[in-house]
Amino acid sequence: MTAQPSFGRFFLPGPTDVRPEILAAMARPMIGHRGAAFEEMYARIQAGLRHVFRTKRSIYVSSSSATGLMEASIRCAPAGAILSLVNGAFSERYARIAQACSRETDVIEVPLGHTFRLGEVEARLAEKRYAAVTVVHSETSTGVLTDVRAVSDLAHKYDAMCLVDSVTGVAGLPLEFDGWGMDFVLTGSQKAMALPPGLAFAAASAEYVERAKATHDRGTYFDIVEFEKFASRHQTPNTPAISLLYALDAQLESIVTESIERRWARHAAMRAETERWVTSCAESGIAVAMFAPEGARSPTVSTITLPEGLPSGALVKAVAAQGYTIGGGYGNAGERAIRIGHMGDHSVDTLRGCLDVSHAALSELIGRRTHK
Ligand SMILES: *Cc1c(COP(=O)(O)O)cnc(C)c1O
Predict the structure, then answer these.
(1) Running DSSP on this structure, what letter comes out for residue 332?
(2) Would the pTM of this model clear 0.85, i.e. be above it?
(3) Of all protein residues, whose CA lies closest to atom 15 belonging to ligand 1?
(4) Which of 41, 175, 351, 363 is most deeply packed, by most CB within 10 A?
């Protein structure tokens, strides 16, 4: 096997590339999770996560993937029906979780690649009483961004809570938990936080936690009331994935040093670079296009449709032969689209390498096709 650089070539929209020094942090010896050393680390982690979520609230650290906290947000939400905004695979998952938790669940579904009309959301909220609305900030299956602040404001107008899956949002694009008056926002470690998979993070408002206390059947492992209780003493309810917390501790130090505003700006620059690449490919006769409409494109992940008759698998494979990893499309868009995860610790520089290789692979594949 030829040696590959250990960072800069892995562009899946999750898990994302993790820097070697962050991976190395996980090799430290164990500490007990009920001791002073742990509490000290946890307090440091809290400060970093508050910077990332822009809140004064505690941030819950769950040793699970992000889906665990999606389920927690539903199970602990006030009793009543759920309204799920669905525009892709992950927002659909949120609706399915609500159903699986025995909640009466109504759905507003828009076609893949589309965003929601706020007027329609408001009409549905006005028509029937809902306990909560679920919404995905950056729909990783399509690369579409939703204005979760506007959705949250609408939900509040009708006395519903807003539950936000910001798994490819938090740490990669602006989100103001306190400033926007959010109720519940969750993310996972393996997306814009650029950590290995296995941890999930959430913030909940004081009102959400207060009302959760009156909700029945919250279970135990994903009980937000328990998370809140333990967070206040710098602990987690159960044994956490301590090695992953070491990585988180190291990564938060980098994120705070960079500052969240600069991190957001770096992601916006990567989106702009990807848009320029798509335009220049199209101008040179390669019929690629951004799937998400202008103005609603995620800064962390781009879904790009391919020329007619070029299967995404062939491009993913050709790019892999050059040592780079990109994602195939998702769901219905799968065969005719690729996804590039330009998030976490990537930069316009590392992305440039990926786009150059992808351009060469595309030209080669199209050339081969026309010569057949
Ligand atoms: C990756 C992802 C999830 C699921 O996260 P897991 O960590 O696999 O549970 C949920 N929502 C969005 C938007 C995602 O991108």
Answers:
(1) G
(2) yes
(3) 140
(4) 175
